[in-house]
Design goal:
The complex is a heterodimer of chains A (334) and B (524). By secondary structure, chain A is mainly alpha-helical. Chain A is built from 18 helices and no strands. Chain A has 3 domains: 100 residues, Orthogonal Bundle (Helix Hairpins); 88 residues, no CATH class; 66 residues, no CATH class. Classes of the chains: A mainly alpha (334), B alpha+beta (524).
Chain lengths: 334, 524
């Protein structure tokens, strides 16, 4: 039995040896292997593979040794190729002879009834809209896999990987699941200053903003001055309630305390705030001035009286003395 | 951003390694979080769940019962680990290990990694490969390719001509016969044994040391046994360079206070039977193909006795340009970016077929087919009701002898209905099967790797092309603007070629419906 078609596929003459077959196969594989030519080459690669396997049986010196019953070896290829060729031939015959001739006729006539045009248009636009639906589903798949990827990394135990995931967050892709995962992570771990600002930026417009803020506040006592300042500024912009600002008052850095005092919500009464009482006992000018400014606005709490008088008389900074005396004068303490 | 790199993973029995081939910068090894390029392939059970790598290795010292390192040998079988009131399958045990490998690569390369090349022993079967790929998918990899260990190593050599490459690692022995020609490496045959490895040598040596020290030969699971194995490994490595080693019993072995002297000759007589078995395999392969060169990779190939025996009875092994332990991982990293100048073509190691109703096997893909390969065949159902499609692997033509990989049930088949079976095996031997029925539009897709579609069986493009031809014929009679819109629709369908299987089928259905409706008008 001859294998002319297969030899032709590999670009060989029908008397080629096994070595030549192998060589030709490799050269063609180099051009059509799916890793080189992409999925488009797959069909061609399948063809040359098939030719190669058929010729292997024919030309390879060890061909007869494969443990396979004789009849199977002889019959299987015949059947396969026979079927294949007939389908192939039929296809080409149909393509070139009848159908194309008919189509050409139609084209030359160039008279298409409008009802038919409308029908065709309807069919195509329905197909278009269906295809569009499928494509939009694809986008859902993509975003879902992306969301899953980020959540998986947020749950990792490797700090570097979590950092990567946090860096990947952007305002546009924070879904609720991701937000929950981030909050979960921050409940357990302290945020790294590198991404802190960015993550807070991302949370600016989400409904879980307060929950997130609470998770971050849990680590406040460990924060450096810069980080605490970043968080505080962000809270100020978000106009959070006073109980979010309050923890900053116990921060070890006086500039943070001062900043927290200066963004104290206006509507909040100072009377029953024990932390403020503690702060009033401090001596730093930076803390005292914003504190006194708050005290002046509302009703003066009872604990403030004698400390104010002392500040008015003894504090080294003139500004503090002026503020204190102003309050004392307003309230008619003396 | 994400998915920029494809990493190569050598998931060895003892150590796992990671590498990435950055185009233009060559292959780089990726250090793990403990600063080492080799991660112990161990997984340990703790109160807080499973841990892997160095953490597991630390637990192994005190609680060897809670640590596993041989999951790879059990992949695809029914073996389960019982601990802490539940059971773990080998896949579940591999999951934390693969996860930490991915995380290490991500932290090192500073990007999300979603694709990898996994090196597996050449003798791994389809279910084993599928199970491994499934574990990798769960560990967060989206695109997974698999490559055989010895053939991956062959990719690093750049040899022209026929050569035999032996991968002798900690758990497995594999060999591949490869023909190289101007950068194209074609595998001719691969063979392997899963019961010969460096660990077996360690075990022999550990027993010998125990006898010498007067220790009772301990049962597996004894903390002292795992300690002895580690000691034996150290002695073995030392004996590759030294003629005599004095082993000092470590403090962990309570009650033994002794030093034992072992010479290389004694060690070699101990492992000689094992080496003889390897030599037998090599000689058989050598005689069958008569290659021109011999290469050895894998840590255990450093053993001087093996090299000496190979040199005297087969051929002096050639010098690998890279460290034998690193060859496989380097090769897998290179495989991720193979192209025109460096191409690896593996072959199917066993035939694949479908069982027909009388118990015979119809082969669809034959042994030795270059990969990736695909085949389709149409069967006619005899009898109605549910039919089974049984996928069989092996050379025999009778089902009872071949190995049954999987059986697909197809419900509600009418008598005489045609069922098309489509097989595709990708470059690394992952099998994907689709069954398409003639009368209904429902198609059943299964893959031994996972339930969803994987990568892209190139099927969709071919199918679209067929429809495009039909449309091209039809559209000749349409006005021009319709032709444009038709090509837009097919282009949309092409976009889906890498997507989920259900979406791909939906796209095809839309095309089919459109074509059938258009054909009605075209031929009145």
């Amino acid at each position: 039995m001859t294998r002319d078609a297969e030899f032709r596929t590999l670009g060989l003459s029908p008397d080629a040896s096994w070595e030549e077959v192998k060589k030709a196969f490799r050269q063609m594989a180099r051009a059509y292997h799916p890793d080189v030519a992409g999925p488009d080459g797959a069909r061609k690669f399948a063809e040359i593979t098939e030719a190669y396997m058929a010729l292997k049986e024919l030309t390879s010196p060890g061909a007869g040794k494969i443990s396979r019953p004789r009849h199977a070896r002889r019959e299987a290829p015949v059947e396969e190729t026979g079927q294949k060729e007939s389908i192939f031939r039929k296809f080409w015959r149909r393509l070139f002879s009848k159908e194309s001739a008919k189509a050409e006729d139609a084209y030359q006539d160039d008279v298409i009834p409008p009802a038919r045009v409308r029908f065709i248009g309807g069919v195509i636009s329905r197909a278009e809209s269906e295809m569009y639906n499928i494509l939009s589903k694809r986008d859902e798949f993509v975003t879902k896999s992306r969301t899953d990827a980020i959540i998986r990394r947020l749950r990792s135990r490797h700090p570097g990987v979590v950092l990567l995931a946090l860096r990947q967050l952007s305002i546009y892709n924070v879904k609720d699941e991701i937000a929950v995962a981030v909050i979960d992570h921050f409940k357990r771990n302290m945020p790294v200053s590198e991404v802190l600002d960015r993550v807070m930026d991302v949370f600016s417009n989400t409904p879980r903003r307060e929950e997130f803020s609470r998770a971050v506040l849990g680590h406040l006592y460990k924060f450096s001055e810069t980080d605490a300042m970043t968080v505080l500024n962000r809270f100020k912009r978000w106009k959070l309630a006073s109980n979010f600002i309050q923890p900053f008052l116990s921060h070890k850095s006086s500039s943070i305390v001062a900043a927290a005092l200066s963004c104290w919500p206006r509507d909040c009464e100072a009377c029953d705030r024990a932390e403020l009482a503690g702060l009033l006992r401090k001596d730093e000018e930076a803390i005292l001035i914003p504190l006194l400014r708050i005290l002046r606005k509302g009703k003066l709490p009872t604990w403030a009286g004698c400390r104010l008088e002392k500040l008015m008389k003894e504090h080294p900074s003139p500004a503090v003395r002026v503020w204190a005396s102003a309050i004392v004068r307003d309230q008619n303490l003396s | 951003m994400s998915g920029e790199y494809t990493i190569g993973i050598d998931l060895g029995t003892r150590y796992a390694q990671l590498a990435v081939d950055i185009p233009g910068r060559g292959v780089q090894f990726i250090p793990n979080r403990w600063g080492d390029v080799r991660t112990p392939s161990m997984v340990a059970f703790t109160k807080n769940g499973l841990v892997a790598g160095q953490d597991a290795a630390r637990i192994a010292i005190t609680e060897p019962d809670a640590v596993w390192w041989d999951m790879k040998r059990h992949l695809g079988s029914d073996w389960v680990a019982r601990v802490g009131g539940r059971t773990y399958t080998p896949e579940e045990l591999l999951l934390p290990l693969l996860s930490i490998l991915r995380e290490d690569a991500e932290a090192h390369l500073r990007t999300f990694i979603s694709s990898c090349v996994l090196a597996v022993p050449a003798h791994f079967s389809f279910p084993e490969r599928g199970a491994l790929a499934r574990a990798a998918r769960q560990a967060g990899f989206e695109k997974i390719r698999i490559v055989n260990e010895p053939t991956a190593a062959a990719l690093t050599t750049g040899i022209n001509g026929r050569f035999l490459i032996i991968d002798f690692g900690a758990g497995t022995l594999d060999m591949s016969l490869v023909e190289g020609e101007a950068g194209v490496f074609q595998v001719v045959e691969s063979q392997g044994r899963r019961d010969i490895g460096g660990l077996d040598i360690d075990r022999l040596l550990a027993e010998w040391l125990c006898r010498g020290a007067g220790l009772p030969i301990s049962r597996p699971g004894d903390p002292r046994a795992s300690l002895m194995m580690r000691e034996a490994e150290a002695v073995k490595i030392e004996l590759s360079g030294a003629n005599n080693v004095v082993w000092q019993a470590p403090a962990g072995l309570a009650g033994v206070d002794k030093s034992i002297r072992i010479s290389r000759a004694e060690f070699e007589s101990l492992i000689y039977p094992l080496m003889e078995e390897i030599l037998k395999m090599v000689e058989k392969m050598w005689k069958k193909y008569n290659p021109q060169r011999l290469l050895t990779v894998g840590g255990s190939s450093r053993i001087p006795l093996l090299r000496r025996l190979l040199a005297s009875r087969v051929r002096e092994p050639d010098h690998m340009r890279i460290c034998p332990e690193d060859a496989v991982v380097t090769g897998s990293a290179m495989y991720a970016y193979q192209g025109k100048e460096r191409l690896l073509i593996d072959v199917l190691s066993r035939s694949l077929g479908i069982m027909n109703s009388d118990g015979g096997v119809v082969p669809l893909l034959r042994k030795g087919s270059p990969l990736p390969a695909e085949a389709r065949q149409t069967f006619t159902a005899c009898g109605s009701g549910a039919i089974e499609v049984t996928i069989v692997q092996g050379e025999r033509r009778v089902r009872s002898i071949g190995r049954v990989l999987q059986t697909l049930m197809i419900e509600n088949v009418s008598d005489g209905e045609r069922v098309e079976v489509f097989f595709s095996v990708d470059g690394g031997g992952l099998l994907h099967v689709e069954v398409k029925r003639d009368k209904t539009t429902s198609r059943k897709t299964i893959s031994l790797e996972s339930d969803e579609s994987v990568g892209a069986p190139c099927d969709l493009l071919a199918e679209i092309r067929v429809r495009e031809d039909r449309l091209a014929r039809l559209s000749l009679s349409f006005p021009d603007n319709f032709q444009l819109r038709l090509s837009d629709v097919t282009r949309d369908a092409r976009l889906l070629r890498n997507e989920d299987a259900s979406l791909r089928w939906q796209a095809l259905e839309v095309l089919d419906r459109m074509i059938s409706e258009l054909e009605q008008v075209a031929s009145p």
